Amino acid sequence: MPGAIYAEGLVKTFGDVKALDGVDLDVPEGTVLGLLGPNGAGKTTAVRCLTTLLQPDRGSAVVAGIDVLKHPDAVRRSIGLSGQFAAVDEYLTGRENLQMVGRLYQMKAKPAKARAAELLEQFDLADAADRPTKTYSGGMRRRLDLAAALVVSPPVMFMDEPTTGLDPRNRQLLWEVIKKLVSGGTTLLLTTQYLEEADHLAHEIAVVDHGRVIATGTSDQLKARTGGERVEVVVHEREHIQAASEILRGFGKGDTTVEDHMRKLTVPVSGGAKLLAEVIRELDSRGIEIDDIGLRRPTLDDVFLSLTGHVAEAKDEESDKKETTK
Amino acid sequence: MSAVTDTARVAPAANPVSQSLRDSMVVAQRNLIRMSRIPEMIIYGLIQPIMFVVLFTYVFGGSMQIGSSTSATDYKNFLMAGIFAQTVTFATASSGAGIADDMHKGLIDRFRSLPMARGAVLTGRTFADLVQTALTLIVLAVVAVLVGWRVGSDGSTNAGKVLAAFGLLLLLGYAFTWIGALIGMSVCTPEAATSSGLIWLFPVTFISNAFVDTSHMTPWLRHIAEWNPFSATVQACRVLFANPGQSTSAAWPMQHPVWASLIYSVLIIVVFRTLAVRKYRSATA
């Protein structure tokens, strides 16, 4: 049975730029898929196709069990969309914005009003509820935008870069909200450029680059593909680098890399925490003082780099422009 | 997802016409709240036509020939129908700018992702603009009376006819906001919508019978002026107000101005509404 969000062979071309070049997705009900990729990778285009805002050139999609191309209106009744830009009316108050959205989801005036009050409370906006949203901070606006997407508690949610441009505190707040939402059984597709965010929120991650899904899996699976763990040691005295390096050679299963200026040594290992303890004892017994030591697992940044050959932050200027102006 | 709930959700809403009207009213309400929170827009929207009334009345008043008369009073009574009509067409710019602004800020994306009637975002905006146009017209009529404009100055009229004239003016204004809606959906920024919404209005409102007697124009220009949809409403208002300077041209719209005004306005609504809503359906921010 296909998942709550299912896409097969989505293709969308803008001029001569292939924004989507055959995207397949399958998100089981009640899970979170993180669509991870740099600017211009096609994440937004994919979300726009799945939320009926854009007609794909080829391919098919089913959301909440409904064919997106055949019954776009029915799909709209079952989804919530929170976009890259906080799309709320800046001259309306938070309450008025939510009431309007509720009414346009075809709720009657009274339930729409009650629901708005409930969401304002839930999203910590009750104090600011009757102020025009142009007086809101960026984080408040983003929360309101998310609340607007949740007015009818849709079974399927799409969030396009929900935390882009937010400070760490507000990002943390929004993450909490998203986690609570998902624990209630909502299926979520989330796009992000932040590897940390995908790592944190998504059950499964699809790495997108140049309009294609180049890898899928859990964060652990993706990390495993990049290679195993390694031990990193920072020694206190520069003259101990040589001795430490010899010790590490005994434990490692590959070459030790040395960053001289940082007095840092890294070696790939297998054996986990137990091995780490042995390394520490050995270093200690030789009288080598250490500033820092740890077992490092590959980050999603490493994964991304090894999959795409470029780091996630690097923008592909041209396709980036295409995606935002189209 | 069971098949049963799917069919229920796929089923269309009960009555598309009433849903469309209801959604339009929700959007109209939103735009009216918005307008009320930006009072300076309403005030500037009023200052301009009032300035036109005062400038035309006192600067041009003494030197314009209307029919065979050069009296300032006759020109004043001639002028007001033209100013009223020009004022209602300026709503084009505000509706265009408003819609372009919604596009720009991503609100159109939000609306398009909601299960609402397809034309309602634009219809709601045009409804709100219609309310603003009506308020502007009321203020302007009061100012016109204050500077000496009188209905029935050139024959007899009655309250029904005067109201009918204002009705035609509102219909013309409403039709032009749909042109604005299409412009708003077609340009990238609110600024572009404002300027491209205004520029073409100057030739449309000046190559007409609004401010001068068309019988003094060179023939080719006169033909354009007499067939200009805008002129039909102006002529209709002069006839219904019983104000001087009614064209005696044999051109059909000048002979049947009320019908011509109605037909033109409805035609503009049908054409531009269709185009604007089509554009909305495929809009990409």
From TrEMBL, chain A:
Compartment annotation: Cell membrane
Principal localisation: membrane
GO biological process, alphabetically ordered: daunorubicin transport; doxorubicin transport; response to antibiotic
Single GO MF annotation: ATP hydrolysis activity
Top-level enzyme category: translocase
Keywords: Antibiotic resistance, ATP-binding, Cell membrane, Membrane, Nucleotide-binding, Translocase, Transport
Membrane topology, record value: Peripheral membrane protein
Ranges of residues in domain ABC transporter: 5-235
Enzyme Commission (EC) number: 7.6.2.2
GO CC terms in record: plasma membrane
InterPro entries the UniProt entry points to: AAA+_ATPase (IPR003593), ABC_transporter-like_ATP-bd (IPR003439), ABC_transporter-like_CS (IPR017871), ABC_transporter_ATP-binding (IPR050763), DrrA (IPR005894), DrrA1/2-like_C (IPR025302), P-loop_NTPase (IPR027417)
UniProt keyword Translocase present: yes
NCBIfam families: drrA
Record family assignment: Belongs to the ABC transporter superfamily. Drug exporter-1 (DrugE1) (TC 3.A.1.105) family.
Name under which the protein is recorded: ABC-type xenobiotic transporter
UniProt organism field: Streptomyces pseudovenezuelae
Phylogenetic classification of the source organism: Bacteria, Bacillati, Actinomycetota, Actinomycetes, Kitasatosporales
UniProtKB/TrEMBL annotation, chain B:
Main subcellular location of this protein, as a coarse class: membrane
Keyword Lyase: no
Location relative to the cell: Cell membrane
Segments passing through the bilayer: 42-66, 78-100, 130-151, 163-185, 192-212, 258-276
GO BP terms: response to antibiotic
GO molecular function, one term: ABC-type transporter activity
InterPro entries: ABC2_TM, ABC2_TM_bact-type, ABC_2_transport, T7SS_ABC-Transporter
Pfam family, one: ABC2_membrane
Membrane-topology annotation of the record: Multi-pass membrane protein
Similarity-based family: Belongs to the ABC-2 integral membrane protein family.
Protein name: Transport permease protein
Gene source species: Streptomyces pseudovenezuelae
